[in-house]
Amino acid sequence: MRISKIYAAYKPVISFEIFPPRTEDRADIVSRLAADFRKLGPAFISVTYGAGGTTRDTTVEIASLLSGFGFTVMSHLTGVGHTVKEVDEVLARLHAAGVENILALRGDPPRETANVYTAGDFAYAVDLIRHLRSKGVFGIAAAAYPEGHIESPRIDLDWRHLKEKVDAGAEFLVTQLFFDNRVFYHFLESIRRMGIFCPVTAGILPVLNAGLLKRIVSLCGASVPAKVLGLLDRYADDPVSLEKAGIEYATAQVADLIANDVDGVHLYTLNRPEWVTQLLNNIGYKRREYLPASQAGLAR
User: Fold this and answer.
1) 74 in Cβ contact with 101 (< 8 Å)
2) Which CATH number does the domain housing residue 244 bear?
3) Which residues are catalytic?
4) In 10 A of CB 298, how many CB atoms?
């Protein structure tokens, strides 16, 4: 199913992200994840794509596997470092597996080759979006950055680039994670004033441990509000309690977002269904059967 059809029929749309396991038993791992996630009934599952396409084959493998299990799947795809021919080969494999949706990203080169890496045929995400749109067979999503991309010199410039991606063919947006809902609401109001009216789904990840938080902030530049810093201080020597408090904080975020009529919530699962299950139980979310596109108009 094209995910844009789901956003046209349902609100809020609850979706998950997983990453391809690096071990040889990845098919077994994903099969177990699929069994756990099926109980929760996500609208779709997205599958990440490593820097410079380092997980290209496993991303296609896992996306194809999930599609075969009956999930609506969105495969991440990065442009940097890839030629048109390479991207088309990936798209052909995904299409053959029934994957109809792509999250188009610029991507980053692998760290160990960053100084010698070539940009390929897609310097920016908008270039990849235009190429995907020319194919006419995929639903297209783009990434959005409520606090601006970490490499952008100004937040308004980043949001102008976001509008270019929407104008080029992105049908809905998935945000980078954030820890303060006020940041998201300000972002949403700002881009609506700019003329971006497509669905925007909020990316959420709980603080599960201090190391994870530091790694996330260093990579994406998300700000850390005082409440989260307070949790880190309070539970510095108690990782179990920190994880519990982090899930409770994320639960409050999601509940507030839903109360404020967001288009959707995208949970960055880290391949850990237990916290996702707990959060959805906490908010009283009831499993939903997303209908085929032909019936979607009856669902809202």
Assistant:
1) yes
2) 3.20.20.220
3) 17
4) 8
